[in-house]
Amino acid sequence: MLNLIFNLQFNHCGGEKNLRERVQRSYRARLRISARYIWYKVKSELAAEASRNYLSHLWWILEPCLMIGVFWVIFGVVFERGGEGFVSFLVLGVTAWLWFAHTVGKATQSIRREMGLMLQVYVPKYVFPFTAVLFGVFKHLFVLVVLVGLLLLLAEPTETWFYYFLIFLVQLLFVLAVSTMLAAIVPFIPDLALVVPPLLQMTMFVSGVFYPQSMIPVRYVEYFRYNPMAGLIMEYRKVMLESQLPDFVYLSKVALCSALLLIGALWFLNKFDRAYPRLTN
Amino acid sequence: MTSGFGDLLIQARSVAVVYNRCRSFFRSDPFEALKDVSLDIYAGESLGVIGRNGVGKTTLLRVLAKIIMPDRGSVTNYGASTAMLSLQAGFDIHASGRTNILLSALLLGFTEEEIRERMDEIIEYSELGDFIDQPIVGYSAGMRARLGFSVCYYMQPDVLLIDEALGVGDLEFREKSAKAMHEKIKSDQTVVLVSHDARTIRDLCNRAVWIEDGVSRMEGDVESVVTAYQEHVRSRSRVEAATLKA
To answer: What is the largest CA-CA distance in chain B?
Structure first.
């Protein structure tokens, strides 16, 4: 048998070099091909976004601005609960929240939507949620450069600003984990796709996007922080507005749980890799 | 083990695929697309899979392309890459023709270097000229088909799995593409061609398998397999005509 395989690998390709190499294509090489696909797919999606609407990328900025505006009017002006630096406070909360909500919302259906493609060619399924997440990262970075740039004008940078990137990375891991897990499960339970948007909406209200932690009674704070988005938004504000060090223990807990969730999701995707194309319904 | 062709590339034994069609959360109807299919694929041959519509030919190709796993039986692959001829797979209508070549060929399992090596040939073959850098949303259906075909023509796996139709695009390109495909099939390229049409199989293949109701009935030289298939179809239609009259 070994002899047969050996013969095949070196003789059967009729002298075409490329084919022979491809027969022995390693796991790493396949990973690289997937990575390149994700990269070009995201690039063309970013360009597509620009060509679809008149205001194109301006909408990416307008949306958080509108949200910030609404919260500012309601809580800052009407209820007079804003206080000093309420705009910066909202900018940090809203941008972090929208990044999470948009990406998760987009990723949820990412595998289910590509059923047709899956029946034509073999695609490792993690490619679809990962594409959605990378797209979200670029969009978020674009928004950050503009809005956090604005913050720079409003506040004096401090040393703790550096930790913003650390919290950013933890949130990225969290977003990736949740997106991949949802994308993996939704094809099996399509009804879940209907639950996700209202669930996201509800989560926003308990994530402290538009109110500070100090407004929560102390005995509830612990439970409040079980929601990673609430905790992360708090940490962003701590390092950006209050010149405090982030809670490293909390961040590592979130990172660890996200990593475990991501590993679980990837295991799930791998296990049912060739079952997804059959779920056409 | 050889049959006048090259080495054995893929061996399928008693392959069965059962689809569960969901009726509701608790009920599902099992539907056996394939029950018991066995076949061998040798390097360099063109294997015709013949059978009436809806006997599981497309499902069989999906199993061979490793898109789905069989529920029973085994498919042993001795190291050949396989892919279905899927025109325009993964095309993104907002991206340029050039980007779409990349997207599609990456999905077919080629590295970026391999694709760039053949990029010029692909573009030339597609006859798109300067349009290649335009988003394909502005292409006509025929132009898109040409681009899709060119990618598949230059980016081929060791074993190419073809489902029915060959020619694509407008009339002129359809002739060109069909002719190119025919030449490809008759050359060293290993091909599995699925069709319900006896003439296509006779013209293009040098070995054939007949599948009926998800079971492989016969495997061997084209003439005897196709003749047996045609006799079966004729007797079937006679029976159907008789029942219609009665």
So the answer is: 65
Nearest to B19 among A18, A40, A278 (CB): A278
Rounded Cα gap, residues A137 and A45, in angstroms: 13
Residue the block writes with tokens 């009259």: B245
Instruction: Quickly count: other Cβ atoms within 10 Å of residue B20's Cβ.
Output: 12
Q: Which two tokens stand for residue B62?
A: 């999906």
Q: How far is CA A78 from CA A70, A72, A140, A211, B8, in A?
A: 11, 9, 30, 14, 78
The answer to whether A280 touches A118, Cβ cutoff 8 Å, is no
pLDDT tens digit sequence for A15-67: 334 444 444 577 888 899 999 999 999 999 988 887 777 777 788 888 889 99
H/E element, B50: strand B46-50
For residue A86 the two structure tokens come to: 């309420």
The structure's pTM equals 0.86
B106 vs B111: CA distance, rounded Å: 6
If we measure between CA atoms, which residue out of B197, B106, B201 comes closest to residue B155?
B106
Radius of gyration, alpha carbons of chain B: 20
Per-residue confidence of chain B (246 residues) as pLDDT tens digits? 444 567 888 889 989 998 876 666 666 677 888 889 999 999 888 899 998 877 788 889 999 988 988 998 889 888 888 888 888 888 888 888 999 999 999 998 898 999 999 999 999 988 888 898 988 888 888 888 889 888 988 888 888 898 875 555 667 777 777 788 788 887 888 989 888 888 888 888 889 999 988 888 888 888 889 898 888 888 888 888 888 777
From B92, B95, B111, residue closest to A33, measured CB to CB: B111
Query: Cα–Cα distance between B104 and B98 in angstroms, integer?
Result: 10
Q: Are B29 and B23 in contact (CB under 8 A)?
A: yes
Structure tokens at A120: 């034509």
Q: Is the Cβ of B94 closer than 8 Å to some Cβ of chain A?
A: yes
Candidates B142, B200, B151; CA nearest to B171 is B142
B40 has which bridge partners? B11
Q: Which of A7, A25, A44 to mutate to test the interface with B (most CBs of B within 10 A)?
A: A44
Q: Which residues of A touch B67 (CB under 8 A)?
A: 118-122, 274, 277
Burial class of B90 by CB neighbour count within 10 A (0 to 12, 13 to 18, 19+): buried
CA A56-A57-A59 angle, to 5 degrees, is 80
